[in-house]
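BUG-600 | component: ligand-complex export | severity: low

The export step for alpha-D-glucopyranose jobs runs without errors, but we want the raw record kept on the ticket for reference. Input record follows.
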Amino acid sequence: MLKRTLLALLLFFSFIGAVSAQSASNDSEKVKWFTDARFGMFIHWGLYSAAEGIWEGERLRNGNNYAEWIRYRNRIPEDEYVKLAKRFDWNKIDPEQWVILAKKAGMKYILITAKHHDGIAIWNSKVSEHNLSKLSGTNRDVLKELAAACKKHGMKLGFYYSHWLDWEHPDGWDHNQEITGRITDEQYNKYWQGKVLPQLRELLTNYGDIAMIWFDMWVDYKTTIVKKEQLDQVIKLIHELQPACLINSRLGLPANTPGIDFETMGDNQLGAAYTNHPWETSGTIANSWGYNALENEYKSTSQLLQSLIGNVSLNGGFTLNIGPRADGAVPYEDQTRLNDMGAWLSKNGESVYGCTGLQLRSDQHDWGRITTKKLDNKQIVYLQVYNWPLDKILRLTGILSKPEKAELITDAGKVALSFTKSGPYTHIQLPDVAGDHFVSVIALQYAQPVELDEKAVAESTFGGLALSSNNASQNTVGYKKVGFDGVRPAHLIIDKNGVLTWQVYISAAGTYQADLSYHNDSKTGMSISISASDQNLSASLKPTGKVVVEPHDSYTDEFVNNPIGVFNFPKEGFYKITLTVNSTENEKLLFNRIWLSKKL
Ligand code: GLC
């Protein structure tokens, strides 16, 4: 009887499980191409591209260099602004070249500014005379050509559409209306019904499959003139015309709202923690999105690759922007970055496409990041090595499982590497020459999904353990964390009694030195103790005072490294380290880290 009830219950729950798994997988099916793609091209191209960040001899009036904002920033009248259309060189403009460049760069989708905040459609829109084709007197439709080229080269196509802001439309919104008096909701709705919805309909009807519409409202819609019903009309229209088309969170709704398929972070804002739902960062190569002639601060290829890899390691993607000129040309600086990234991806792409991250601390290792994917029943873990260790040992912490094999990806193919395993550590023996001059990738293959240890403090390059606020497994009274401020190291403010604990793994029995780095303003010193199993080290920490940063008047808090004593670890294994501070009133210890290293 009991058996039958259990069986019935089991069947019931597996049925429920099947139903919910199915609806969840329907959604993830839709967005899967995007979470597999990880890398796409953003193109900011519109009337503003022809201004190039300069208006009547004056540079763009804003420090962020966003040249696509020039009409608003430099207070340009509409009838002057539209004359920029005459600068477009239609003999040279060839959208297929952008697709070819994206393809070479290893990008899997293209997202183009169909209409930016200036309100000018770059396609031959029947809804508004304010479109690039009409203004520049051509019968060409750039989006038609781009859509055809994307189809030809197997590239997904998405449209950026500025829904909230429209500086051209008399009933549209610009920020200045905050002081000049708001237009009424009725007026705004005229813009919405008369321009936004009909233009979206055009975009979703005339250009084949549209992979995503990328909206751009970076504040909560409730603080704007836009109404929830208006956003719902947009979602409904998209679902009706192209059910597979994705919608990003900058529509103005949180990422977990039904209808929103993925989260878009702030401009150039990279991920900070592993996030389960789909997300991406849109990023620039310099500062501006639209072409800006006065820019000269370009990110390096390494930096851009690290942005991509870092996001993938946290389950996110990267949409990297180019700003072509009014003749369609892509700036050389952009091309070189994209070509280099493409060359890297053609060799190391298996560690990016279809990959996600491990749920370890995001800054676990000081040598780079980790990406991973399932392959049949196996799991592949990719170590993304930004810095090739001088001692030729790569120290990985946090995976308890033992890999079947370790291979370095090189120009000549995969090269087997030897490794050792103890506890949460894997030490990989590296050859002299790195696998790549940007980021070297080591692929570890595991027979089964890996077993993680999220708590263990990661070994530093060259060995040794830095026990800090970031990798503490317990912070009993929730001491406040202060990040690195440019001069003072990151620290915790310890101002009441409590303990911090860490889980460490000792892979070789022996004597270990414990040093404590701290700052303390007290008059008399502060007593602390550090313990590991039954051993206890006590110390009185002297006041530290100030240190000169730069002559003659730039001082900051001194942080000193204080040797506290030694621990004898009798055997290999996990140990708990505890820091106890006896803090009397008005005393503060700014705790930076404990450095634990084997005595030679
Ligand atoms: C911002 C800017 C815009 C740019 C966009 C890209 O919201 O307003 O100019 O298109 O971010 O992420």
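Assignee comment: Attached the raw record above. Residues 66, 68-69, 216, 218, 267, 282, 289 surround alpha-D-glucopyranose (CB under 6 Å).
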